[in-house]
Amino acid sequence: GVRLLLHGLCSNTTVKSLDLKGNNLRTMGAEALGKLLRQNKSIRSLTLEWNSLGMWEEGFSFFCQGLRANNFLQRLDLRNNQINHQGAGELAMALTQNNSLQELDLRWNNIGLLGGRALLNCLHRNKTLKRLELAGNNVPGDILKAVEQALDHNQDREAILSEAQNQVNILSKEVLSLKDEKNKQFMDFADTVDKQKEEKARSEKMSAARVNQLQEALDEQYSIMNSLKTKLQMTEAALALSEQKVHNLGELLNAMKQEQNSVAECHFRELQQQKQEGADRESRLLHDLSAASEKNLLLRNQVDELERKCKVQQDQLFQVKQDLTNTTAELKLRAVEAEERLETERRRFKQSLEDMESLRVKEVDRMTQHMEASERSMHSRIQRLEAIRTSLEEELSQVKAAALTERGQAEEELIKVRSQARLEEQQHLEHLKEKLRLMTESRDEAQNCCLKQKEMVAEAQAKAKQLSLYADGLRRRLDELQQDLDSKEEEKVTELNKVKVELQEQIGHLEAERAAQDGLREKIAALERQLKALSSNHREALLDKEGEISLLLEKLRMKEAEISRVREEEAQRASLLQNAIMAYVQGSPLGTHSSRK
């Protein structure tokens, strides 16, 4: 049923959230989910809690392949899915190529240390994941802290990118508005130029007398325009230098950031290696301590056995002493009995056997000799037993001394091992403290470098502000020059009006003179008869006047050509001014910033 449902959702474009919590999805369901993630482009949230996807390794690998190919899913819930470290590794491989997932919930699985490390390593390449839940996965605290730091870094990066994008949008809008304003100003300026050209075209027919003055005014304007061009070139060069400095500072800042990130990664790797070495050393020390304790136990067992042997030998000595006392008591009893027998025999045979006195004496001597021999044998046996006892006591003392020496050696070895372990631990702690001090010094140096870079950036920003103020001053200067140009144009218009008035007055005078000439002609027609003699001279004078008029007409044509040439030069100057204004607008800090962005 899930496969049919997901097959139908592959081509769907309206479903944004899909919740399949607690549906006992198996291998086929996981494969269908992977196909859905590869083909669907509309689902943004997917909940798969309580489905045990981690138990089906092949299906979960297909699901991870689909997640790797998907670039639209933003939230994924995989709680209580029995995902082990292998599944976490596949998820990490998928996250390295996924650029859309922002939230991933992996609580109450069985990821462990290896899975946590794999997810931590994938976060160095994934820059879009903002939230990762790993509670209830037996992941160590240091890995959780590193994951949180990586996620915080991703969130900071996303915030910085969004702020930069907003600033870019704002700056682009400002640039567009400035361009629109400049275009409007340029259109207005072009309209005014066209109007001025039309006014000039209308007024050129009547400005023959004031051409020299206009030419001088145009030369002054040309010199002013040249000075403005030089100033614009100088400002453009200064702006180019400031832009180059800002670009160099930005590259230095990026290089320092990359170096800081590389140093932080190296320190983190060294800390991990040190932690691993410390763990290995602790394991070796524990192993040595366990071996020393086992050896100590063996030595204690040997001492106990030797003490038992001593006790047994002491018991044997005690039994020997008891036997010796028993034998001596028996010998004494036998001697007493023998003496009693001798006395009884003496009493018995004293009266009756005086003859046997010598024999009895002999027998008594023999018995005394036998007793002496038995006493000698007993003394020798006692001496042998004493020698055996002394030898046993010496052996016992030697065994005790050997046991004491072995015990002392074992205790000395144990003390040496403990002292060596303490020294190694102290050395390791001192080494760690030294590394921590070096890391703090490197961190302080990095912070100082960052502060210096921030100061350099602040100085660059201050310089950019100064340059922007200088550019504003230049703009104001251009506006003042434009106002001067407008005032001069107005003066020219007023002068042209004056010229028009003067020309109209001259035309009125000429018309009056023409009327007077008509009256004179009538008078001449009336007096032609009288002036026939002077007509030839008058005709010659008229011919001279006509030549002069033709010369004046030629001069007028030449002046008109000069005026057209001046007009073309003014058009060229206007186009150059327009190009300079457009170059200034494009070379301003806002324009360069937007183009660089």
From TrEMBL:
Assigned keywords, A-Z: Coiled coil, Cytoplasm, Cytoskeleton
Coiled coil: 154-181, 211-259, 289-569
Record-level GO cellular component terms: centrosome; plasma membrane
SUPFAM superfamilies: RNI-like
Subcellular compartments: Cytoplasm, Cytoskeleton, Microtubule organizing center, Centrosome
Protein name: LRC45 protein
Organism for this UniProt entry: Falcunculus frontatus
Recorded name of the encoding gene: Lrrc45
